[in-house]
Amino acid sequence: MKIAIRMDDITPDMDFEKFYKFKAILDKHDIKPLIGVVPDNKDKKLKKSAPREDFWEYIRGLHQQGWVVAMHGYNHVYTTREAGMFPISDKSEFAGVAYPRQDEMIREGKRILKSHGIITDFFMAPSHSYDRNTLKALKVNGFYRITDGFGTQPYEMDGITFYPISVSKAKTLSSKEEGIVTFVYHAGTMSDRDFDAFEKLFSRADVVSYDEFMHYDSQIRGLKEEAQEFLTAKAKFYAVRLKRNLSKK
Question: Which of 80, 116, 167, 180 makes the best surface tag, with the fewest CB within 10 Å?
Answer without folding.
Answer: 116
